[in-house]
Amino acid sequence: MFRSFLHLSPCPVAAGGPERCAASGSGGLCGLLPAGAVAFGGWDGYLRVSLWVLLGLLAVLGVLFAGMFGRLLEARGEPPATGFEAMIGEVGVVREPVGKKFSGWVFVRGERWRAVAARDAPHVIGSGDRVEIVGFRGNAVIVRPAGPEGGPGRAS
After folding, report:
1. Is residue 152 included in any domain, yes or no?
2. Of 42, 75, 108, which one is at a domain's C-terminal end?
3. In a domain, 100, yes or no
4. What's the rounded Cα separation, in Å, for the pair 78 and 61?
5. One domain, residues 7 and 70
6. Residue 64 to residues 19, 52, 130, 140: CA-CA distances in angstroms?
7. How does pLDDT run across 35-51, given as a tens digit for each residue?
8. Domain boundaries, position 131
9. Helices (H), strands (E): how many in the chain?
10. 55, 71, 81, 154: which one has the fewest Cβ atoms less than 10 Å from its Cβ?
């Protein structure tokens, strides 16, 4: 009998995205109600919980899950913070010359990356020049001279 209270129905929200995580939190709250009812009514007389404790716990958890759900929805529009996608547009410094036909090394975000020049880049980008990451080819970054802020030229 006790196990039947723990069974949760499938989440009504489509799989994927931040809604899935928040829906599982609301599912946990819904699952806490029947479990609390068992505890409130007693289970073989050994376990009793105050109704006010149960309602307080549900209120606190509800506020926490609502806050998490709101933050997850805000995060949907933010650009990626990690991975390859987050590096597009980053500016680095050439450590070894980079060309269209040969690879060199650039230093970006405190990491050393193998790099090749973009099609619209000069034939060779020299050591010390500032470059912008525009894509990836395998495990190498594709770079071109940095834009107007740093411009192509020596990094300070």
Report:
1. no
2. 75
3. yes
4. 26
5. yes
6. 15, 18, 45, 42
7. 766 666 655 556 667 77
8. 83-145
9. 4, 7
10. 81
